[in-house]
Fold:
Amino acid sequence: ETGVTQSPTHLIKTRGQQVTLRCSSQSGHNTVSWYQQALGQGPQFIFQYYREEENGRGNFPPRFSGLQFPNYSSELNVNALELDDSALYLCASRDARGAVNEQFFGPGTRLTVL
Amino acid sequence: AQTVTQSQPEMSVQEAETVTLSCTYDTSENNYYLFWYKQPPSRQMILVIRQEAYKQQNATENRFSVNFQKAAKSFSLKISDSQLGDTAMYFCAFMENNAGNMLTFGGGTRLMVKP
Structure:
């Protein structure tokens, strides 16, 4: 069990709505990434934040946005939800000064869009 | 762009036996890392083993070992003495050097360990 937590565990929204997912990084971790994992597939990189700035983004539209706070917690916001946004959303945190394998995933938020 | 392919959607193995999961990848980079992650039903992604591309020696972690063939762009995972707790989804993942957290995952292999 890692120190990365995510909330909520499950969430149901309807098409067109907006959603905010939260991640609390492990203490001391200054880099956080978000991934989308559709059912039966591997996770896909959405974006990452380092010191409150986005510094890497995958192939996701601008309606996927994020924030990282000084206490290294972070949010993933998705606007104008579509049915295909239904997925498990994972966050992963690491200390940028640490070894590359010191990356810890949270348990995820299961989002269902109806 | 890098791609990672896992050609075995499902595998099964008897408890205490050995199983090998396959992974191939495509990249033009020379410096990178490869990982195997385990995702049990609890959904939390757990690092099993990693390999630095510049190291010729295959990584080993207790019952888990890899066969890294850089020229063939192949990275298989061998699980020895399989245990019931090894039942999970296994994902192969690739990361460029200096790419921070950006992992490219394969589609996964569902492993069932049978008693």
Remarks:
- Chain B touches chain A through 24 residues (CB under 8 Å).
